[in-house]
Amino acid sequence: MTHFYRPAEGHRLPHDPFNAIVGPRPIGWIGTLDARGRRNLAPYSFFNALNYQPPLVGFSSNAWKDTVANCLETGEFTWNLVTRALAERMNASSTTAEVDEFDIAGLEAAASSEIAAPRVAASPVNFECRVTQIIDLQAVSGQPSGSSFVVGEVVAVHIEDSLLVEGLFDTAAADPVLRGGGPSAYFGIDEAQKFDLHRPD
What we know:
3-stranded antiparallel sheet
């Protein structure tokens, strides 16, 4: 037996399973400035790496929010790794109130090297990004979805030295938080779950 549904007709479940199935997903904790220099920090659960060279990352916003507006105005954003130790403050920064999310979440901002957008100082990994595209997502019918997909080229990377082991990034030691299914589920990564596969020649 399988549960079958057409998304346009509804899933008939207590919570939409789509984003639970496509997961866990890395969190796009995005720092921006608006044209007047006011700070914004917001988490996005639709985020990922998109390309090696140039290194591209992207996040999708399900509405036109301050982050997207700031990316359009300034052409810049930072991505900041969410660790388990920062999870509650990441959640606090998801407020929709007109506030400085760095302040409301009790986070110190760090200056970037190549762009003006602020980094989360407590995060052990930061990407400084310049916007390459902002895409209005649409359905197969051509109807707008109301969501915007922001793509940025990573122009600078900050990595805490302790996370580099013999030159390799230690994903488990970074203790990243990943978004999972349901309205409140998050996951971590455990070294015990790691396994290696080598590509065939």
